[in-house]
Write a structure and sequence with these properties.
The protein is α/β, with parallel strands linked by helices and 188 residues long. Helix content is 40%, strand content 13%.
């Protein structure tokens, strides 16, 4: 699934006010991840004379749940009406960990569906956060189909990994959130 959904296209652009409101909602649950500026030559085989510009790296592996996916998970859970059945996510790894983490922090039941090829570390993290783990199928598409079936039967809300725009949220980079809120990129 790539690109904007029909609902996203019809909803129009996200306003600066929506971004600020969402940021205020999710901020208490996130870490301030640092940036690191590295000469391009340190990342390539280029000589120092051919170095080019510096590259700014955002160290999102230090974010809660180990990736930037925590932002979207918290936005989805905080900005939507969540039924007693909780939430469901299909994931190859990082999204599932982020949804399990957000659900755990917010006291919301979560079921995470992963394919059989999911990494052991991701599976262990999801389980350690108290989510119901469902492993099956050989591909992400199999896990997603099983999650959709489970959602239809249980009444739980799906938290898709891609192309979703809960009220007040968009797939925004940390830099854009920082620009709009007046905080530097490292503060998101």
């Amino acid at each position: 699934m790539t690109g904007a959904t029909q609902a996203e296209r019809e909803a129009g652009p996200v306003s600066a006010g929506e971004i600020r409101r969402t940021y205020r909602q999710i901020r208490p649950y996130l870490r301030r991840t640092p940036t690191l500026t590295v000469p391009l030559a340190a990342l390539t085989a280029a000589g120092h004379g051919d170095a080019g510009p510096d590259v700014v790296l955002k160290l999102e592996q230090l974010q809660c749940a180990g990736s930037f996916k925590a932002r979207g998970a918290f936005a989805n859970l905080l900005l939507r009406e969540i039924p007693p059945a909780g939430v469901i996510a299909a994931s190859g790894g990082n999204h599932g960990v982020a949804v399990a983490y957000a659900a755990h922090r917010l006291g919301i039941p979560a079921a995470i569906f992963v394919p059989a090829i999911a990494g052991r570390a991701k599976i262990d993290a999801i389980c350690s956060l108290g989510a119901d783990l469902h492993v099956g199928g050989d591909r992400y598409a199999d896990a997603r189909a099983a999650a959709q079936t489970w959602a239809a039967e249980s009444g739980a809300v799906q938290v898709p990994a891609l192309s979703v725009r809960p009220p007040g949220w968009s797939r925004l980079s940390a830099h854009r959130i920082g620009r709009v809120t007046g905080s530097p990129p490292a503060s998101s």
